[in-house]
Write a structure and sequence with these properties.
Helices cover 43% and strands 11% of the residues. It has 281 residues and is an alpha/beta fold. Strand 4 (64-65), helix 3 and strand 5 form a beta-alpha-beta unit. The structure holds adenosine-3'-5'-diphosphate. GO terms for molecular function: sulfotransferase activity.
Length: 281
């Protein structure tokens, strides 16, 4: 991280890329929420694009999917005022950085969690392939950075724990990447209940099909040729997003020593976390 300080800057003790200006981060609390704003929340590389695609398909594209709340310049806050409702707003912000008005208006959030070992691996590849992120060392050095929370958006552990504290507020739906992989229609059904959408089983199966890894990956490939095949625009580097989309890729990266260390840290940091106990991999 320190070799390319220009691509990362610290705010509130958390590393952000230069896609998030300090002015914007400093002014986030002036963001004006609408009661029907829907937040898609995640630690990076947990399946944000997947979730966004599902929501877009559920609403038949009749919603406004924004870029992540924390990306951009100060003018972003003004620009968002002009967007039509319903605004679907992805974010990687920790709970305590979330603009006050979103909390005051009790806006709904869907929080997607992925097992941290696969998240770490996915982020590692993203660092390696993405010119907007600092060049990193080989896996062993990166592994230590991840464990210390010295990666973009900070510590996975803190992100989860901060959001989990609010899981009973009645405004947050928690989804698990691995459960979605296992039975996507069931997760989509949960989303529909949470959002008050009544949709037939046939439509759920169709949304599930349209949101599969292969379908999304193929659509990204087609995008260059066919503007009708667009996938959510959370990033300008969409091709980097669809790597493997698998559960358990961490086994190809973690040494047994790293695995033991990870399990020890996980056990001590996440001891009180009911959410962590539900993560399967
Ligand atoms: P991998 O790098 O392990 O392949 P995000 O959208 O938060 O940046 O997360 C990206 C990760 O989600 C990538 O993981 C990507 O492949 C995976 N992903 C994206 N769409 C998916 C889908 N439809 N099904 C399963 N995984 C998906």
């Amino acid at each position: 991280m320190s070799s390319h300080p220009n691509l990362i800057h610290m705010f509130n003790g958390i590393p952000f890329t230069t896609r998030s200006s300090t002015d914007l981060l400093r002014s986030l609390d002036t963001f004006q929420a609408r009661e029907d704003d829907l937040l898609l929340v995640s630690y990076p590389k947990s399946g944000t694009h997947w979730l966004a695609e599902i929501i877009k398909n559920l609403y038949d594209s009749k919603v406004t999917l924004t870029s992540p709340l924390e990306f951009g310049e100060l003018s972003k806050l003004e620009e968002m005022k002009n967007l039509p409702s319903r605004r679907i707003i992805p974010t990687h912000l920790s709970y305590n950085m979330l603009p006050h008005d979103l909390k005051a208006k009790k806006c709904k959030s869907i929080y997607i969690v992925r097992n941290p070992k696969d998240t770490a691996v996915s982020l590692y590849h993203y660092y390696r392939d993405n010119p907007n992120l600092p060049t990193i060392e080989a896996w062993p050095a990166y592994f230590n950075m991840f464990m210390q929370g010295e990666v973009v958006c900070g510590s996975w552990f803190d992100h989860i724990l901060g959001w989990e504290e609010h899981k009973n507020d009645g405004t947050i739906l928690i989804l698990y990447y691995e459960s979605m992989k296992k039975n996507l229609p069931k997760s989509i059904q949960k989303i529909c209940s949470f959002l008050g959408l009544s949709i037939s089983d046939q439509e759920i199966n169709e949304v599930s099909r349209m949101s599969s890894f292969n379908e999304m990956k193929n659509n990204v490939e087609k995008e260059n040729h066919d503007p009708n095949h667009t996938v959510c625009a959370l990033t300008s580097n969409r091709k980097l997003i669809f790597r493997k989309g698998a559960v358990g890729d961490w086994k190809n990266h973690f040494s047994s020593k790293q695995n033991r260390l990870f399990d020890e840290v996980y056990k001590s940091k996440m001891e009180s976390s009911a959410l962590a106990r539900r993560i399967r991999y």
